[in-house]
């Protein structure tokens, strides 16, 4: 995801640089530049490089699995006591 985002930003950056070096009509250039900058900012600000925040995901699993530990320990201890 990060590589695709970087590639898209690099392509837009190259287009912006080409447009700034071009000698076209100022109005036409300003309109095109505004559109390219808008697309660049949209991709830069709104695309994530990883779909999950690892800290949030870790906290979710701790909260989800914590209630399962006491019954699991009880069963395991019960099996251990029966074997002795």
What does this protein look like?
It is a single chain. By secondary structure, this protein is mostly helical. Helix content is 81%, strand content 0%. It is built from 4 helices and no strands. It is rod-shaped. It starts with a helix and ends with a helix. The mean pLDDT is 86.
Condensed summary:
This protein has 84 residues and is mainly alpha-helical.
Tell me, briefly, the overall form. rod-shaped
**Helical amount:** over 70%
Kindly estimate the percentage of residues that lie in beta strands according to DSSP: under 5%
Tell me the structural class: mainly alpha
Rounded mean pLDDT is 86
| First-residue to last-residue Cα separation | 54 Å
Tell me about the biggest sheet? none
- Point out poorly predicted stretches: none
Helix and strand run? HHHH
Q: From the alpha carbons, calculate the radius of gyration and give it in angstroms.
A: 27 Å
- Per DSSP, the total helix count is 4
Layout of strands and helices, then pairs:
Elements: H1 2-21, H2 26-46, H3 54-65, H4 69-83
Helix pairs in contact: 1-2
Key features of this structure:
single chain, 84 residues, mainly alpha, 4 helices, 81% helix, 0% strand, rod-shaped
